[in-house]
Design goal:
Layout: E1 14-16, H1 36-39, E2 43-46, E3 49-53, H2 63-75, E4 82-85, H3 103-123, H4 161-165, E5 181-186, E6 196-200, H5 203-207, E7 212-217, E8 222-223, E9 226-227, E10 229-233, H6 238-246, E11 249-252, H7 260-267, H8 269-274, E12 280-284, E13 295-301, E14 313-318, E15 329-333, H9 338-349, E16 356-360, H10 375-386, E17 390-393, H11 396-402, E18 409-418, E19 421-431, H12 443-449, H13 455-458, E20 469-476, H14 491-508, H15 513-519, H16 524-537, E21 549-560, E22 564-575, E23 581-591, H17 598-617, E24 623-624, E25 627-628, E26 647-651, H18 669-681, H19 692-702
Helix pairs in contact: 2-3, 14-18, 17-18
């Protein structure tokens, strides 16, 4: 098919187009539950060849290997005989987004039933016609039988690993098309929460560059309050030159300017508590009115970025269709929700959704950040404007400035310890929105949604321990920087605070931190991972300090989304003279039910532990001049290879249904590191991240 020519003049001039009226209500993601009949559309058999269209995005979690191995086991063939294809809206029916570590939980059983149905049909000689999936009990499916010794794998499914290490084109940035052009959308250097638009630019200078194809004004280049200006070039290297030549001047609503102090003020938990009860309560038990609290702990966790290795990219191509029935638009994107992308583009361009194909590409790090339609819309607008396929690749600076971030949070925990147990617990926290992200929800809609409460903010705030009287409450405040889903949502920061407070209570009771946790739980699976992590670390053999180095050990545990369990033990060393903190070992016990792909689960757990290390010791996204101030990794400290200790991951053999693994260890790793630092220094660091200067100051105060 030929490319559709939407505009006759697609040269190097300024293209200004009008936008048809759109609904004020944003497109809402749909979250269907997949059935085995749906899964029959994922697995195909043709002339002895099996093809699996993945229902999930592959973003490094090795879901391709897990589902490929499951399909092969159920079909009774080697994994290499199951050919993998990344999903496309044209080849599979609508599925849930790849979020919440739920891919195996959502797709394993339907796929296993579909493969069993296909296997039986082929065994009976049926090679054509329509199949109806059988409702086979999990206990009768080959691929979902409990395995023992999950430390070893036989005939492991390769997934996309071979293609990845041999440099085959997998990512959106690898897309190559005849006549491909390259685009960028320039935006004011402020948060998209602030109204901004291009005011003036030097078009003549831009057009003097022979690689300049177009400068595009279009109302569809609006992302919340930020209206962008598009440029299209023959080569990607020309984009920087054209941007510099344009010298865009921006009109910015200075009345909403902000600095870091404004963010700190909006989420300050003590300010909110002085006003009375917080907006949402997860537990509402009555608490004592006197002030005889054993523990009164304030902790603050800063803004953090996704920091994926791959900045997002998308390629859009408009296609000729004389009958107006076939595909009119095709988009290649690294997205966690390809059907939501299709829905947004259908709304924006007044197209039937069936006439848009979104082809998913491998994602070089998603973590919840690839759920909105951003670069995909930019590429589509520019491609329509110039009548040619256009690729838009965000720079690292754009990834920091234009994506949404993990919200900061401010916590206060009060607890009463009597008779060797916690009898009363009060956890109050203030944060910003996660599931109700302001990057997609206007103020009025977020205000309505807030009546229900953002469950992403609350995730992990409910403690996994048995305490008779509890009050757990939170509020979410819209911030001038956009926040949203980040690995584990609120579970990482919230469980860090819970586990820190648990350790302080144990210290007050003069109890061993492991025994203290075991005394406060009746959950056998939580107790199991706590005991396993402690046993692997040889918990009683605490590291000893010496004249130059303080040493400490900490433990923490938790339950992710009520279904997956993790516990961790950390050992740290602190140099007395420099305050330098080093995590020297991490042990983690992990229970996510039946493990389909052990190497993948271990890899995900290790990734979680590194994120936890970053949360406690490194990561804080700087804010200045009404926006994110980081433009590169030089501005945003991350754990480096030399910071990573030996990681000992121990998977629990389980016959329970498979659950999530991609985010589970977030509930344990950060708490273990923070508690080890407390054990080494005798100081509970209440504001993260903990830097060497903070440690030196605390040690000098102690002295």
């Amino acid at each position: 098919m030929k490319r559709r020519q939407f505009l006759a003049a697609a040269g190097a001039g300024v293209l200004t187009v009008t936008l048809a009226g759109c609904s004020l209500v944003p497109v809402i993601p749909k979250r269907p539950t997949s059935t085995a009949d749906d899964a029959l559309g994922w697995i195909r058999h043709d002339n002895g060849r099996y093809t699996l269209w993945l229902p999930s995005a592959e973003m490094g979690q090795q879901i391709s290997a897990a589902l490929q191995g499951l399909a092969a086991a159920e079909l009774g063939v080697p994994p290499a005989q199951v050919h993998l294809q990344l999903p496309s809206t044209r080849h599979i029916a609508r599925v849930r987004a790849t979020v919440g570590s739920a891919s195996v939980q959502d797709f394993a059983l339907p796929l296993a039933r579909a493969c069993a149905t296909l296997r039986e049909a082929l065994a009976q000689g049926q090679t054509t016609g329509t199949l109806a999936a059988r409702d086979i009990a999990p206990s009768a499916l080959r691929s979902l039988q409990p395995r023992t010794g999950v430390t070893k794998e036989a005939a492991a499914a390769p997934g996309q690993l071979h293609a990845l290490v041999t440099g085959q084109p997998l990512f959106a940035g690898d897309t190559r098309l005849p006549g491909l052009l390259y685009g960028r959308v320039l935006r004011a250097p402020v948060s998209a929460e602030i109204t901004s638009r291009p005011k003036a630019w030097d078009e003549t200078a831009a057009r003097a560059d022979p690689a300049c194809m177009a400068v595009v004004q279009h109302p569809r280049l609006l992302q919340m309050g930020s209206l962008g200006l598009g440029i299209v070039a023959r080569t990607p290297s020309a984009l920087d030159r054209i941007e510099a030549a344009l010298a865009v001047q921006w009109q910015v609503d200075d009345g909403n300017a902000f600095e870091q102090a404004a963010i700190d003020e909006r989420i300050d938990i003590d300010t909110h508590l002085r006003r009375g009860a917080l907006q949402h309560r997860l537990r509402k038990d009555e608490l004592p009115t006197d002030t005889a609290w054993t523990l009164d702990l304030r902790m603050d966790v800063p803004l953090a970025a996704h920091a994926p290795i791959e900045p997002r990219s998308a390629t859009a191509q408009w296609l000729a269709d004389a009958d107006k029935k076939d595909i009119a638009l095709k988009v290649w994107a690294g997205t966690q929700d390809l059907f939501y992308m299709r829905d947004v583009l259908a709304r924006q361009f007044s197209l039937d959704a069936e006439r848009i194909e979104v082809q998913a590409c491998r994602i070089g790090g998603g973590f919840g950040g690839r759920t909105l339609c951003t670069v995909e819309l930019e590429a589509t607008v520019l491609a329509q404007a110039v009548g040619a396929p256009v690729k838009v690749q965000w720079s690292r600076a754009q990834e920091f400035a234009q994506g949404f971030q993990r919200p900061p949070s401010s916590h206060r925990v009060r607890a009463r310890v009597q008779g060797g147990h916690i009898t009363h617990w009060w956890h109050a926290l203030a944060s910003s929105h996660i599931l109700f992200t302001p990057a997609a929800m206007p103020v009025w809609m977020q205000t309505l949604a807030d009546l229900a409460g953002d469950s992403g903010v609350a995730r992990g705030a409910q403690m996994p321990y048995d305490v008779p009287q509890q009050r757990i409450e939170f509020t979410a405040q819209r911030l001038p920087v956009h926040t949203g889903p980040w690995r584990g949502l609120g579970a990482g920061p919230n469980t860090l605070v819970v586990e820190s407070a648990m350790d302080e209570c144990a210290r007050h009771a003069e109890a061993d931190p492991l025994d203290w946790r075991l005394q406060h739980t009746t959950d056998a699976r939580l107790a199991q991972v706590l005991r396993r992590a402690a046993a692997e670390a040889r918990w009683p053999e605490r590291p000893a300090s010496d004249a130059t180095t303080l040493r400490g050990r900490g433990i923490a545990g938790g339950i992710y989304k009520g279904v997956s369990y993790a516990a961790a033990v950390a050992d740290v060393e602190v140099q007395r003279t420099t305050g330098q903190v080093r995590v020297v070992a991490l042990w983690c016990a992990h229970d996510c039910g039946l493990v389909l792909q052990p190497d993948g689960v271990r890899a995900q757990t290790e990734g979680n532990l590194v994120w936890c290390l970053g949360m406690v010791l490194h990561e804080q996204l700087p804010v200045a001049r009404s926006g994110v101030a980081a433009a590169s990794f030089a501005d945003y400290p991350l754990p480096r290879m030399g910071d990573i200790p030996p990681l000992h991951v121990h998977l629990i053999d389980s016959s329970a249904p498979p659950t999530g693994a991609g985010e589970t260890a977030m509930v344990a790793g950060a708490g273990a590191i923070a508690n080890a630092l407390r054990n080494a220094t005798g100081v509970r660091f209440a504001r993260l991240p903990v830097r060497s200067a903070d440690v030196l100051q605390a040690l000098s105060t102690q002295a």
